[in-house]
Write a structure and sequence with these properties.
The complex is a heterodimer of chains A (112) and B (115). With 112 residues, chain A is mostly beta strands. Chain A has no helices and 11 strands. Chain A has strands spanning 4-7, 10-13, 19-25, 31-38, 42-49, 56-57, 64-68, 74-78, 87-94, 102-103, 107-111. In chain A, strands 2, 4, 5, 6, 9, 10 and 11 form a 7-stranded mixed beta sheet that branches. A 4-stranded antiparallel beta sheet of chain A has the order 1-3-8-7, with no helix packed on it. With 115 residues, chain B is mainly beta. Chain B has no helices and 12 strands. In chain B, strands 2, 5, 6, 10, 11 and 12 form a 6-stranded mixed beta sheet that branches. In chain B, strands 3-9-8-7 form a 4-stranded antiparallel beta sheet, with no helix packed on it. In chain B, strands 1-4 form a two-stranded antiparallel ribbon. In chain B, strand 7 (56-58) and strand 8 (64-68) form a beta hairpin. Classes of the chains: A mainly beta (112), B mainly beta (115). Chain A binds chain B through residues 4, 31, 33, 35, 40-45, 48, 50, 56, 58, 90, 92, 94, 96-98, 100-101, 103-106, and chain B through 6, 9, 32, 34, 36, 41-46, 49, 51, 90, 94-97, 99-108.
């Protein structure tokens, strides 16, 4: 069972470079999420998609864009990476409110 | 809007001792409550959740949590911890009904089990 798969697992970027984090889920879930995790701050929601074709900002959306390509895939793009975006990024998905939210294994991103 | 407070950033405990990790929340609407565990360099795994019914919820690995509506708390407990329980634990809430089905997390509690 793959669950939520995100790539790449590790990435080093130079300031100003762009990149896209990919996420796919195979559980037929409607909702998908991108979180970032920083020491002492827990997980903070960047963007989410309640259903295919819709996206909304979360708590910390600045510097990011997202695309819900289809029901399975939800990508996160950094157009011009900054050192403040050094973090661990988690993709997640779930079927409906109250159901378990499933997480990917994380993407470690360093911006130098 | 919702918020979650985990007052203890770190909790050291000896193996086989009991432990309680505290979680308080604030919300203008009813919420579902969750505890997740994160082992080093891994994603988050659900420990347990409260949706409705009995306020005492049992989860995996011998953990349990009690929902206290009047105190808006959802503390996590284990009567006897093991070295393998060393991990970071996150409390989270999800608004019932609408609200975009989003999880709001606390800042986490690092549980360190020592011999």
């Amino acid at each position: 069972n793959a669950g939520v798969t995100q790539t790449p697992k590790f990435q080093v970027l130079k300031t100003g470079q762009s990149m896209t984090l990919q996420c796919a889920q195979d559980m037929n879930h409607n909702s998908m999420y991108w979180y970032r995790q920083d020491p002492g701050m827990g997980l903070r929601l960047i963007y989410y998609s309640a259903s295919e074709g819709t996206t909304d900002k979360g708590e910390v959306p600045n510097g990011y864009n997202v695309s819900r390509l289809n029901k399975r895939e939800f990508s996160l793009r950094l157009e011009s990476a900054a050192p403040s975006q050094t973090s661990v990024y988690f993709c997640a998905s779930n079927g409906r409110s109250g159901n378990t939210i499933y997480f990917g294994e994380g993407s470690w991103l360093t911006v130098v | 809007a919702q918020s979650v407070t985990q007052l203890d950033s770190q909790v050291p405990v000896f193996e086989e001792a009991p432990v309680e990790l505290r979680c308080n929340y604030s919300s203008s609407v009813s919420v579902y409550l969750f505890w997740y565990v994160q082992y080093p360099n891994q994603g988050l795994q659900l420990l347990l959740k409260y949706l409705s019914g009995s306020t005492l919820v049992k989860g995996i690995n011998g953990f349990e949590a009690e929902f206290n509506k009047s105190q808006t708390s959802f503390h996590l407990r284990k009567p006897s911890v093991h070295i393998s329980d060393t991990a970071e634990y996150f409390c989270a809430v999800n608004p019932r009904g609408g609200g975009g089905n989003k999880l709001t997390f606390g800042t986490g509690t690092q549980l360190k089990v020592e011999l």
